[in-house]
Amino acid sequence: MLTLPRITVEVPxxxxxxxxxxxxxxxxxxxxLRRRPGLHLTLLHIGVLDDFSRDVADWTNGIxxxxxxxxxxVAWLEALxxxxxxxxxxxxxxVLGGGNVSGLEVxxxxxxxxxxxxxxxxxxxxxxxxxxxxVDDFILSSRALGFRYPRxxxxxxxxxxxxxxxxxxxIEPLAVDFGSSRIRNQQFxxxxxxx
Length: 195
Hints:
This protein is of the alpha+beta class. It has a domain at about 5-90 and about 110-150 and about 180-185. The chain is about 30% helix and about 30% strand. The chain has helices at about 20-25, 50-60, 65-80, 110-130, 135-140, and strands at about 5-15, 30, 40-50, 85-95, 100-105, 155-160, 170-180, 180-185. A hairpin with a 4-residue loop joins strand 4 and strand 5. The radius of gyration is 18 Å and the shape is elongated. The two termini are about 25 Å apart. The mean pLDDT is about 95.
């Protein structure tokens, strides 16, 4: 079965700690430590584009079609501003979601939090343009978006928790360097004018 790619706005991790062993050391605290290439911090999760467009069409009772939603979302994504690279700091591992993911909680500069708030506001405006009413209700109920928590916690998913405890685990502080923001899986988006 073909798994469709999820679309997110993210920043790639360029480096963690002062040497590769700093990251490898996390393997003593988590199972299935993820490889360093591909690590990222998600700023905004859109989900599978087809699912998101279907959610919009269902919510609007077809007033906004799947095709129209897809075209509008692709154009919106491609017009988003780019956040320049930045540095952060991690001092603890946290358990995420249903308890299956362990992540480095990252302290990020204020302008990064402001950018993430800007993205959420832009998402609200996008949904208004798509004729979605009760935007907050839609965001919380859309399976594609997957929003479950009102507060954004900057984090890098690094593996699976070794224990069942949900308590944060303090670690030696690590500097984390990030690249510029990008659209994950952008190569799978249809052309904005298509359809």
